[in-house]
Design brief:
M13 family metallopeptidase, three-stranded mixed β-sheet, globular, hydrolase, Peptidase_M13_dom_2, 9 strands, 7% strand, zinc, four-stranded mixed β-sheet, Collagenase (Catalytic Domain), protease, Neutral endopeptidase, domain 2, alpha/beta
Length: 650
């Protein structure tokens, strides 16, 4: 049997006891330059490129088959064709923006700002709030609208206030000026300065990334009257009308950051109307730049790609076209992807893996020493209510109402957004669709949804090095097994643990057990606060921002390893390629996180990404007794952690 680990790819000059990541991945990283169109590159990206190529083949074959007009196949082909017709797009220049810019230029009051913001939101243009429909955290039997803070063109509120981002702020103002000039907006330099001033004010009302992780703080349920009281200058009915949402959509709304609503209301009352006109115009240009003539596309990439992430080259046009089709018609393509690239036996093997992982979690929760019996009973009940989804949805999305034309790229983009807006708001008042997926089958990723208490694994991630039906079980459990454990672990991390088995946000912990859990989480925060990634030396990780994912990794490793032991039954693991079963498990985990990032992208991700850098995720094994035993790690070794300092939650 193949081990699933290539011995020739292992760096024998680096001991696993010192740096498991470099031991497993060093030769690959040295031999594999980061592609010019990427800020980072690793295992996930390699698989995403493969899936992207598969999707391209599907799209082009569908289009070449001359499908009947109005069919989903025709829509897929026409949408891709509208993006790939570069000459037609170039000939239009800034013309597709004219109507929206004219509307922005004639706004004359706060009410009109909100009405226009709603109408623009229906076309995919960022507004002052980002509304989305989801199950109610306090009552998962119904849907409600959530309002997320928005309105900024830089990645995060910290970019507007922290000294380390001062050069990015300067570059941003220049970028806004150049984009507005390309669009023919008057006095672009003055307008860019006003945009920056307005966004700086809005950013001051935003909550930071760590605060936004708290599901209790970010839950304020209001009716329309309460929402109006919170932000009296905000014309919500005008906004809803512009958005094309039902007039009663905000009869029950969850405000995630109340301070933002108060801040927006004050800004609407106090900021001059010209600043709002400029801000609206800027976001029109920004949102639609990828679908315009090359001057817009290149300027957009120069700032958001080169300046923010250090990426030298733009992605090829066909890749961007595939991305658009994925965004607008993802499940239509996904149905064909599954037929071609996800054999039934792969799903069957995954079911067995998931069963063993859930059993491992059950055993762990039954005996963790810091958890009392009342909390343990609730935790086991929650585990018993988990829903695993593997490969693809049971029902495919209906795209019948979406109009696509081969000669109207920006119109297609706008209609696709409007189609999705209508689909989302149609959920209100209806039963919760527990079969809905929030990723397509061709997505190389996975997720846990606390509101439905479900773990979801799209087809595209179920391939080597995550999962190989022909490889050794140890490597599969170290790969997809640990990923499954990671996602299940999110049900019990600092956020997910605040939801019960029905998906309801409620405190089911005793005070003593919550304190014990928080002490372990705090120890993990402190540990990661001291770590640096090799891709951005001297830049520390934000342990509080990454703690949820770090708990997921720690749980995934612990439970994945226990599940591997369960899969062996009473049989000893064979030695393959000179490695024991336990060693192959940890090697399999490390190769999943193979990759590197450009310095600028690594620094950007440290500020924004709730995941720790790849090398630190691989070396999270430092907390496991099982890793120390498997490789004989001792004092003085790079990954040695004194037993008293190791963090073990599950």
């Amino acid at each position: 049997m193949r081990s699933g680990i290539d011995p020739s790819a292992v760096d024998t000059n680096v001991r696993p006891q010192d740096d498991l990541f470099a031991h497993v991945n060093g030769p690959w990283i040295r031999a594999t330059p980061i592609p010019a169109d990427r800020g980072r590159y690793g295992t996930f990206d390699v698989l995403r490129e493969t899936a992207e190529q598969h999707v391209r083949e599907i799209i082009e074959e569908v289009a070449a088959g001359d499908p009947q007009g109005g069919t989903v196949a025709a829509k897929v082909g026409d949408l891709y064709a509208s993006f790939m017709d570069e000459d037609a797009v170039e000939a239009l220049g800034a013309q597709p923006l004219a109507q929206d810019l004219e509307r922005a230029a004639t706004v004359s009051s706060p009410d009109e700002v909100m009405a226009t913001s709603g109408a623009f939101g229906r076309a995919g243009i960022l507004g002052l709030v980002l509304p989305f429909v989801n199950t109610d955290d306090r009552d998962p039997s119904r849907y409600v609208v959530y309002l997320e803070q928005a309105g900024l063109g830089l990645p995060d509120e910290s970019y507007y206030r922290e000294e380390q981002h001062a050069d990015k702020r300067t570059a941003y103002v220049g970028h806004v000026e150049r984009m507005l000039a390309l669009a023919g907006w008057p006095e672009p330099a003055e307008a860019a300065a006003r945009v920056m001033a307005l966004e700086t004010r809005l950013a001051a009302g935003h909550w930071d990334k760590v605060t936004n992780r708290d599901p209790v703080k970010t839950y304020t349920l209001l009716d329309l009257a309460g929402l109006t009281q919170l932000g009296p200058q905000i014309a919500w009915p005008a906004y809803l009308e512009g958005l094309g949402a039902p007039a009663d959509a905000f009869d029950a709304v969850v405000v995630r950051q109340p301070d933002h609503i108060t801040s927006v209301s004050a800004a609407l009352a106090q900021e001059p109307v010209q600043a709002w006109r400029d801000w609206l115009a800027w976001h029109v240009v920004h949102a639609h730049a990828p679908y315009l003539a090359s001057a817009f596309v290149e300027e957009n990439f120069d700032f958001y790609g080169r300046t923010l992430s250090g990426v030298p080259e733009m992605r090829e046009r066909w890749k961007r076209g595939v991305g658009l089709v994925e965004e607008a018609l993802g499940e239509a393509v996904g149905q064909l992807y599954v037929e071609r690239h996800f054999p039934p036996h792969a799903k069957e093997a995954m079911v067995g893996l998931v069963d063993n992982l859930v059993e491992a979690f059950r055993r762990s929760l039954s005996q963790v020493p810091w958890m009392g019996e009342d909390t343990r009973r609730e935790a086991l009940a929650k585990l018993g209510q988990f829903t695993p989804k593997i490969g693809y949805p049971q029902r495919w999305r209906d795209y019948g109402a979406l109009e696509v034309r081969a000669d109207d790229l920006l119109g297609n983009v706008r209609r696709a957004v409007a189609f999705e807006v209508d689909r989302q708001y149609a959920k209100l008042g209806g039963p919760v669709d527990r079969d809905e997926w929030f990723m397509t089958p061709q997505t190389v990723n996975a997720y846990y949804n606390p509101g439905l208490n479900e773990i979801v694994f799209p087809a595209a991630i179920l391939q080597p090095p995550f999962f190989d039906v022909d490889a050794d079980d140890a490597v599969n459990y170290g790969g997809i097994g640990a990923v499954i454990g990671h996602e299940v672990g999110h049900g019990f991390d600092d956020q997910g643990s605040q939801f019960d088995g029905t998906g309801t946000l409620r405190n089911w912990w005793t005070e003593q057990d919550r304190s014990a859990f928080q002490a372990l989480a705090d120890a993990l925060i402190a540990q990661f606060d001291e770590l640096e990634t090799r891709d951005a030396p001297r830049q520390k990780v934000n342990g509080a921002l990454t703690v949820g994912e770090n708990i997921g990794d720690l749980g995934g490793l612990t439970i994945g390893h226990l599940a591997y032991r369960i899969s062996l039954g009473d049989e000893p693991a064979p030695e393959i390629d000179g490695w024991t079963g336990d060693q192959r498990f940890f090697l399999g985990w490390a190769q999943v996180w193979r990759g590197a990032a450009r310095a600028a992208e690594a620094e950007r991700l440290l500020a924004l990404d709730p995941h720790a850098p790849m090398d630190l995720r691989a070396n999270a094994v430092r907390n496991l007794d099982e890793f120390h035993e498997a490789f004989g790690v001792g004092p003085g070794d790079g990954l040695w952690v004194d037993p008293a300092q190791r963090v073990r939650i599950f």
